[in-house]
Structures are given as C-alpha cells and as structure tokens.
Q: What sequence folds into this?
C-alpha cells in the first residue's frame, strides 16, 4: 500500500485558485465595504487555508485521527481568542475609581 | 536477529521499515499523526501573538489602520504569490516521490522551493524592512511619530511592533525550514525516497505548508487592515 496519489493537475488547479483568491483579497481591500472588509478578508484567508490543508497537506486523504488533531488545534485556538476577548471586551473602562459610593443613589432611592 | 530477518522476510517490508510498527502504512500514519501534533502546538505558538493582535487592534483600530497603510501592498501581495508557489513546488516534490520518480526530480522541486523561499525573505528584508528603517518605522530604532497621524499616532508604534514580531517570527520559521529542506534534498539525491517510503519529505512538506498558511493570514491582517481604500496605498 502506497500513499494516495493526487494528480499533478489537482495541485496546479488548487494553486491557480489560491492565486485568484490572493488577487481577490488584495482587490477587495481597496473597495469600501464598511464593516465588511475584515470579515471578507478573513473568509478568503480561511478558504485558502482549507485548500492548502486538504490538498497540499493531503488531509483529505489522511486518517480521521489526523483530522481530529487539526480540529482540536483550532478548537484550542478558538478558546484562547474567545476567553481573551470575553475578558477584554467586557471591561468597563471607568475614568475614575468608584467605591461603594456608586451605589449611594440607589440606596437613597434616587434612581 | 534471526527472528527479525524472518519477520521482515515474511512481510517483505521496505528497508526503512521500523520493527515496532505492524506495516509501512501504520508507520506512515504514526509519523503524520506526530507531525500534526507538533503543528497543533505551532497553531498555539502563533495563536498567542494573533490573540494579542486581535485585542490591540480592537483597542487601537485607528492606529492600526494608519500603520497598515504605511506598508507596501505590492510587495506583500507579490510575496504571497511567491510563498504559495513554493508550496506548490513542495507538493510536487512529494508527488514525484509518491509517483516513484527518480531522486533528481524530487531534488529539482525541493531546490525550486528553497529558491522561492529565499526570494520571499530577500523581498521582506531588503525591500520592505530596509525601507521601514529609512522611514523611521521600526520601534526602538528611531521611530518617529508623524504629526499628520493626529491623536491615533501615539499607538502606531504598537502596530509596527506587531508587524515586525509577526513577520519576524514567520521569517524565522522559514530560515529554520530552508536548511531542513536542503538536508532532505541531499537524502532525495541519494534516492532515499520512493513510492512506499518518503516520510521525511512529507514531514518537511507539512511544515512548509504550515508556514505558508501563517502567511496567508498575516497578509490580510497586516497589509490589508480596513481603510486601504482611503489611501493611495503604500510607500
């Protein structure tokens, strides 16, 4: 049993698609999509990554165990980013430190 | 020894077959698994700096846009093409071994991969980083905050710290990868790899493709940060 042989034209095809996507992501950056520029750029990058992983890295033909390691890798990356942002984006950047006095209006019935 | 000889003769295994495995297929799958565990670690290694980038970009978005617009998109895009092309030649080197082609064919593709890798590094260091130095855009090496950046200017050095650290770490991975590819090329030249056994070739390929993927994300995150359309682009 030798490894699955991917035809050369598949590699060249994937390469050409990657070239088109590189051109696309560069071109789109010069168009104002308002809040969508970054999501579009990241979506194109993810598609490019999936193509490289599946074909250049042969994961399409790899055992399920290998696929699970990859999914686990990205799962832990997602945890890292999600918990970092959960902290960072939910901090209230108060200009001054309030003690318990911040509760005074409520305690005094003035709210 | 006699047992091993009988065992190997019985299974008619390849010279590179290691006795702890059932067969060559199990040996190959074990190697691939191990390499991917290493690459999963690499995802977390780069993940730390990516997470930091996300947080600071959210906090200092305007500064990151100003910084990104000072980078040269043309060099960034050209280098993306060069690096993806080097991934293609690497895939073709492994394909040559899998298809049972001679070692010389594998070596040719491996040397092409190294050449493209060297071009990438040359563009990055000589054209991009040198220009950044002359324009006083390297934090710690005479960085000058320009008045036209306004209030957001004070955090532009932070964008450049991320830029140099991320592209530097990526370049370091390539600098490590190139000698390894050359060692593998020597092995290929000695016809060590064939359609049954080409694990070292495949492993260095996985590493190189991983480095390519990191760049696939670095290019939009550093060069194409929202607001490119506002400027005329680059230096």
A:
């Amino acid at each position: 049993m030798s490894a699955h042989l991917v035809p050369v034209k598949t590699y060249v095809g994937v390469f050409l698609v990657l070239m088109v996507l590189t051109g696309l992501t560069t071109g789109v950056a010069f168009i104002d999509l308002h809040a969508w520029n970054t999501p579009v750029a990241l979506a194109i990058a993810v598609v490019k990554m999936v193509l490289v992983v599946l074909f250049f890295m042969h994961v399409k033909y790899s055992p399920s165990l290998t696929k699970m390691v990859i999914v686990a890798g990205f799962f832990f990356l997602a945890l890292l980013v999600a918990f970092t942002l959960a902290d960072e984006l939910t901090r209230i950047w108060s200009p001054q430190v309030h003690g318990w006095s911040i509760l005074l209006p409520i305690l005094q019935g003035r709210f | 020894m006699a047992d091993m000889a009988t065992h190997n003769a019985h299974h008619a295994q390849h010279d590179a077959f290691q006795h702890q495995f059932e067969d060559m297929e199990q040996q190959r799958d074990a190697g691939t698994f191990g390499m991917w565990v290493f690459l999963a670690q690499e995802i977390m290694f780069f993940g730390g700096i990516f997470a930091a980038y996300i947080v600071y970009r959210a906090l200092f978005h305007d500064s990151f846009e100003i910084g990104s617009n000072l980078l040269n998109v043309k060099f960034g895009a050209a280098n993306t093409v060069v690096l993806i092309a080097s991934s293609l030649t690497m895939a073709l080197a492994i394909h040559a071994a899998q298809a049972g082609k001679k070692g010389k064919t594998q070596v040719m593709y491996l040397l092409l991969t190294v050449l493209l890798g060297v071009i990438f590094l040359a563009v990055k260091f000589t054209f991009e980083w040198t220009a950044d130095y002359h324009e006083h855009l390297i934090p710690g090496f005479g960085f000058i905050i320009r008045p036209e950046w306004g209030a957001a200017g004070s955090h532009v050095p932070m964008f450049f710290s991320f830029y140099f650290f991320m592209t530097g770490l990526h370049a370091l991975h390539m600098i490590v990868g190139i000698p390894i590819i050359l060692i593998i090329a020597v092995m290929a030249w000695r016809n060590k790899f064939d359609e049954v056994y080409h694990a070292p070739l495949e492993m260095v390929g996985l590493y190189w493709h991983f480095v390519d993927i990191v760049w696939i994300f670095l290019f939009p995150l550093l060069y194409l940060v929202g607001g490119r359309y506002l400027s005329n682009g680059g230096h």
